[in-house]
Amino acid sequence: MFDGSHRTNKREINYSGASSSSRTSRKANLTLARQQRLARAQAKAKLNASIVIQRCWRGVRTGSGDGTGRKGIARALDGRFQAIVTDALNDASDSSSTDDANQHGSSVAILATLLAFRLSPALSSFYTSTNDISVEESMRQDLLKMEKLLTTNTQQISPIAARRLTSVTLLLLRQSVSRRNMGKEEEEENRRMISLLNYLLQTIFSSTNNTAASRGVVDDLLQSNRPSDYYMSILRRGQDKRQSKPAWMINLFSCLRDYVIFHRDINVDNGEKATAMDVDDDKVSNPYDLELLLKWCCKTVLHLASTSDQQDVATAAAQNLQGDDVLSTILQYQQGIALLASILFIAPSVFGKSWLDTELTQFLRSLTQMQQQGGAADAATSDKDLIPWSPIFTHYLSCAIMCGNNSTPSNNDQIWSTALCETLNNHECSVLHHIVMQADVYHEQRDLYTYSVPVILQYTLQRHHDLATLTTFAARGENISSWIEDDKKNNSEISVADAAATAAYATDGMDVDDDDDDDEEDESLRSQSVSIQQPSQRDKRSTSTSRYSRQDLQTLPKLDALYQTKSLLDKKSTTDRLRALSRGARGIQIEVQCMISLAKKVGKGQWMLSLSNSLFTPTTPQLSSFGLVSSSQLLLLQTKAQECYPSALSSVLTSCSGSKAGRNAASPLLAKLAFHNPSLFGLWECSSQNVSLLTRSQSSKAKIANSPQLVAAYEVFSSFCDLFSHHLLAVDDDEFLDRYFSPTDGGNTPGKILASDVVLSLKKILNDLYWVNPVLAADISETNTNAESILRFQRARLLISGTKLWNSLHERWCRLYRNVQFCDENSWWFPFLAGQHDSNPIIHSQVTTFGDQNDDDEVMDESSVESVDVDEGDAGGDALASSFRDPKMARVLTAIPQAMPFSRRVNLFQSLIDSDKLLMQDEEATFRHMMMNLDNPEQDGEMGGRVRVTIHRDALYSDSMNTLNPLGKKLRKKVQVTFVNQHGATEAGIDGGGVFKEFLDDLIKDAFIPQATKNESGEEEQSSDDNHPDFFSVTPLQTLQVNLDSDGDYSALSHYEFLGRVLGKAIYESILVDPQLALPFLNKLLGKQNSLDDLKNMDPEFYKHIKSLRYMSAQDINSLGLTFETTAGKNKTVELIHGGSNILVTKDNVIQYIHLVSHQRMNIAGSRQTHAFLHGFRDIIPAPWVRLFSAYEFQKLISGDDAVQGIDVQGMMNVTRYSGGLHPSQPIVQWLWEVVNEMNSEQQRKFLKFMTSCSRQPLLGFKSLAPAPCVQQTRLREDNRGVDIAEESPIGNIRLPTSSTCMNLLKLPKYTSKEMLRDKLLYAIEAAAGFELS
User: Which of 228, 261, 396, 776 is the 20 to 30 Å CA partner of 661?
Assistant: First the structure.
């Protein structure tokens, strides 16, 4: 049965069908008949084997002994095997002649075939065992007997039997080494099994080498003429010869991997290094098992490379495939090298370095020679030279990873990919750790190494969540080594403080039970879990694409809080897993140590900077791969690396993303990459190319289908936003304009990032993320890892990071607005918001209330760098968002208000005020209150909705301070003013609104403008009864800032608080006033921090001098004798740091000195006065309302547009109405506008104040003035009692023009000439009289 002998049947000769009697024909017939006979014998052997196996599976009685079914066959085989073993051993001991030796060799071949059949998958489960010995041990003993026989005879056995025995031997070796407790006896047995493995592999490769080069290993084995081989082949799962699976090859590599890990752990237990590669180990001998297994793995790869089928595939690939197809097509021998690389990189130190270099050099040289014979062109190196194998192996590993990610492999490719994934999934950190640590070793093949690493880094970070978490927090500057400490204190305190801070926003508006104050840590974590595990809201998009709930569209601060909370939860879960693993087996501890070391290496930034510099610096790749990699492949690999690097960088920067610029100022990765120009430009190039992809309208199915490309595009843009926003923190305005502004070039500038291009690209993307297809809160909180969830998370991340960069650029644009505009104002507007939309978007019943606001954070000191706009600003933003009907608009206006034109924001701001006035100035409530208190005149001044005050003109400020300041928030009510003139007489004017406007305008001029400025302008000095200090001082730019001389006067704080309420009241009543406030002071009103560049908007000369220190030499700085102190106010010196008066300014610390000085002058000095002013201002105007505007826009809200000199006469003419018989066509009307048009700007403003009580035209033009201006005709003459008389009467006085300012009404007498009208009108507006003039 097992020797395969068959007799010849003469009748088979007739089957040839030949009739010729010639000698040649007869020979041909015999040859053909012999072939047919052999084919039938092989078919019969197949059939018999198939029948036997089928009976085994069906359990049919076989008639051999008393056994039945598969168990019976197993027992019969066992008996037969034991008998043959005994005979073979006896024959081996008695054999003395050649015939005996041949007979013994035949017995060994039969024994090997029988043993292989017995160990086949169909029967191995019924392997005989007793109570004293396991099945595995029984198999081991049989193989050891086989090894003993082979030591006495080298007769070749069946190749198929050898393959099966090889697989079983490798399996048993792997099981043995995986137990990690190998004794000496078992170790000796394993050495014998490895010797058996060596013989079996020699048998396989020798039989393969004797066949034609066009057949592979499995094809050669299946061409054997012995029917016994078919008994083995029939047991194979696959029947197709061409689709055979090299399982034994994979087992060989897997066995090497297990032995490498085993010896690594043994070395670590003995105190040796586990991952080092540069150890001088020439005196160290390699373990026999490792050396033999590695050699056979190399031979396997060489065998795969030598087959002609593979060469045909390689030739076809080189001829037909281009671009990414070349990189996504990898041959089996290349997959073998990749698998071998992953195994060696786990722990290369288990081999002797010199031996390993020599062995792999010889391997690569043999591989190079094979490829040169196939047509490769590179020259081979000298035989004495060592080939640096690590970069080449890294290259093939990256190619295998790309092939597994980008293509659908065949059956043979699939088994190699599976083996590679199995190795990487368990040891990817060790593999990548070795690759990263070798970054500076291989200089000759730097490009090949550099272009391969990003692919492996991206693969590892995407599939190893714990490594990604460690790396991203290392990039933030955290000490990740402390995460795995077993200290209980660290275990309880990790992340809780940070999580509690962010969970306050994430849980706002959610049903979270937080009444338990005894366990704050557990409560904070529970709050996080509630915020993260929200139900998905994506299902609503299938039914409605235009309506979203407020829970879906949470404001940006809440989204940012959800994002940060998710990062902290990832940190906590990773910490818990690592602590558990660090207490596990030694091998697992090694993986944890490699993970932490790798995360530090990547997160610290220097390695990433070196990699980025190699990728994005324009250079030609240097090819030095000894013919193994072509130049075209290297160029394609460079392109692929430039695509993978941003994705890997995005994973590293995950926790560095956020809505606040400067939050991660301590990040070492940001500090290095953000100021590396090639990295920024490389990322910008990748980002700008993807704008159309990210903003393209696609269906849900199309987005899911294109999710890998979309995710990669979102990742690279998020990385650019994080780096560029951090970069802008340290770039002053002059450098910014020099680098990122091109005033002459309207298009793209090669090699340069234009700020205008960044603004426009971000506008398109943010318009999609905010408005077209808005990001939902569930996009961040979902914990699924499918493609759709990852895509939504990356969209949310880009929303947060993109908003941060867009706002940073807008702040820069606002600061430069008066000098240079690096983009047009409409570049910030969303298309929909720039057009027509809901004219009344305010919910009147939900207008922001004036509850207690946390103003303590507004004190500007060194410890409050971000306190101004963190807690109070975010909470106020949520309150403002609740005032709008559309949650999309609410999110936009609280995060990026510049996306809406200024005029529309002014209308929204006015709508907010009008809504509040409905509550505070209810006339019906006022009337009811008045009727109820008719008999009590003392209550008349405090009736609901109105406040009446009496002000003496010669005590304007003191009366106002005493009567209005105590009102506090009640100052939002209507205020009716009655003036008392200098003679003590009450003026006749009735306040319908105009008197109060004049009063407020005069009060603000008196209180804000310093006395010296008034004297220079020729204004009257204030009376001695109304003396008050100058609360503001004039900057060199002729703007106002708080007077620093009053810094120590705490009694002045109440005055600043009052002035804040007065300015807030002017804005509340839409009254434009004169004071031009300094932009740094306006930034404080908006709750923003000032930077060094804001100093030039307060004191340009000082800014110029302080900035020049950066460019001075060390000698020049030392000669100045500066110390870390500065002056504040009059004759007051403050230290910038503790002991600063004794610390000299040098070249090393001059940057710190510059920023400390600017921070002191811009944020610390006058902080008490500013805080008091803000407290009063926010009694009238909530902080979130004014955050709709930038600083320069806020100034326009206070005093109007300075670009308009005087008034817009034509605009006023267009909206003016006429009464009393006047018509625009009459001469007197034409004279009026001619006279007004001929006035200078100061006279025009006086004319406007005479008519409306306000010297500045409305912010949105005269069309927004309510009521509309009107000109009414009156009689020309009056008698001494003011009674009208006939115009023709020669007696009487000619009237002057008068006005009713509450109605914006000009009463114009019927003058008879233009000259008379001019004289009377100018006299009236220049008189500056009170309300008794008429």
Answer: 776
